[in-house]
Amino acid sequence: MRGVLRDLKEYPSRWRKLQEVVRNPIMREALERAMTRFVEGRALALDGLGDFQEWVDRCREMKDRALEKSQELWDKVKEEVEARGGTFYLAPDAQAAKEYIGRLAQESGGNLVVKGKSITSEEIELNPYLESLGLEVVETDLGERIIQLAGEKPSHLIVPAIHKTKEEVARVFSGACGREVPDDPYLITKEVRKDLRKRFLNADVGITGINVVSADPPAFFLMTNEGNGRLCATLPPVQVIITGWEKIVERMEDAFTIFDILPVNSVGLKYSSYLSIFTGPFAWKKGRQFHVVILDNGRRKALEDSLFKEALRCIRCGACMNVCPVYRTVGGHTFAHIYMGGIGAAWTAITNGLEEAMEVASLCTGCGTCLEVCPMGIPIPSLVERVKELAKDKGQAERMAVRLVSRRKLLESAVGLTALVAPEKISRLPGPAGTITQERILERPHQPPFHPWALSRGLELGKGGEVTLYAGCLVEYYYPQIGRDAVELLARLGVSLQIMREECCGLPARTVGEMGLWEELAVKNLGYMPPGKPLLFLCATCMSGIHAYQENGGELPPLYDLSQFILEKLGDGAFPGSYEAKVAYHFPCHLERHLGIREEPLKLLSQVKGVELVEGDEAHLCCGGAGLYAFKCPPVSAEILKRKLEWLEREGVEVLVTSCPSCIMQLRGGVEKKGMPVKVMHLATFLLEAMGKGADGGRMKNER
């Protein structure tokens, strides 16, 4: 209970910090401009590469194969580096790596260190360490130089100063130069180039990161856009390469496979400007030194974890950040420790520890947008869940809330009490909790629950229906009208239903790391499922949660979303209904990305006469609800929601349809808060109205 109280006490200050971030117009503008450009560029560049999933499968298999034999491959690289006159050092942790490189720099007899871009050097906080030894360290990548002079950390894996506008960059260099530098990108670059040229020529040590290392033949590959990495590696008398244990691949062909996909997937470029390959000392000058520092820092231990080892496939393309709704809202200083985004939560756990990782993981909505763009097939949402599972002493308030909603009797009592004492609409919560209702209105739960009503209609538990309906907690206690509408709709389509005894699907437990509770609920629900009957869902989240039971060997009947089931029932026929309106469909994240159901909802809606269907990229974006997320991170949730609402307004949408009660809660709350003339409806409700009849028992006035 102490942890719960601690979390509740910390929430208001955390919300204030998040609010400051989301209200930073300069950062938001810079992020939005860059992210839009990268996403659109990626889509165009991918056209020439063929089937993206084939690339994912190939890259995943290639990297997994290399990681499996990584010790053998690194032994081969070490042997070749030393045979060519270089030194090879495996650093067990960050401190060892810093001390080794610091000693090399001091022994060089000079003072100036030039660096290429390296997130691995950021991981070990190399620059502050070298500066503490009295060395001058100069970042030579333009983005890294900007943030170095600004006294900040990188905010993106590929574009470290992505959060800066050209006006801010000009001010940074004006301060560094002692004179005004115009806010023209060409003139800024010209100024930086002039300054760096003399530093390259006078540097004593050059340090670079590496993108990929091949074992056959042993070679180190470095991709850059500015050519600075090549100068760092070839001009100073001491060359130091620092890279992680995970960067190894078997063959040179494998390295080129990565470079075929990396620039395309990251920023939408078919090629990068420079690709340098190093195999040993670049001996333009007698006595040049070549040092390779390979960083472990938790990587080899991660290979032993069934989930964390998947993070080691990451090639640092940054595509997951480009599409992430949270990253696009708060940027890579807030949604990061050193590594950014959802993948950053896993990497922080591997390299720094669970406490820091949990700070990053707590901001992830679990929407799964990252799953669609990762070229290495990394299950980032599952990695975030793994972090939360291991960080058991963190997020106690969230865990307590999940334990409550996952226990039917407790939930029923809490909902019943809330329905008695709460007003129909809650437009403002008192005190710090008012942040939750700043951009949306809350509704009280509706009574009576769905199951008693269904039983009164003769829908017995597990008897007599061609399909079994799993209602889910929100339909059961919050929106029972959706369940009633579904029953009436299916009856009119000639479908006989049966209901099942239910527990929570367990997904809320899983998303906060309560894996034991998730497994317990899975066992119960599997035992309640009538054998041989398809299972029909009114909630995409519940369907996703139950679909995941298969990971633990659970045998499931066929699972159907409502749209899938109705289309199959109709066969070649059309839906018998009409609805004159401009209609959009909001794709729940769990439906589209976790379950892969994309075509059926639109296909079904397009069959409804009179519907003018509005489509667009925004229809597929997360709404920011994400279950408890809207209550845990309300400023971020509200900003994500705002983008969806702006799209509805811009397109003149009159009816927004979806298949997730949690999304309905978020979207309807936002629509009503803004006073928008938009009906937010479940698919079942919309289709029933299209057939011209409401469900038996009447409709509650705020159910539209």
From TrEMBL:
Record Pfam families: CCG, Fer4_8, LUD_dom
GO biological process, one term: lactate metabolic process
Domain 4Fe-4S ferredoxin-type, chain residue ranges per copy: 304-326, 355-386
InterPro entries xrefs: 4Fe4S_Fe-S-bd, 4Fe4S_Fe_S_CS, Cys_rich_dom, FTHF_cligase-like_sf, Helical_ferredxn, LUD_dom, LutB/LldF, NagB/RpiA_transferase-like
UniProt keyword annotations, A-Z: 4Fe-4S, Electron transport, Iron, Iron-sulfur, Metal-binding, Repeat, Transport
Keyword GTP-binding tagged: no
UniProt KW Secreted keyword: no
One function term, GO molecular function aspect: metal ion binding
Entry protein name: 4Fe-4S dicluster domain-containing protein
Annotated source species: Thermosulfidibacter takaii
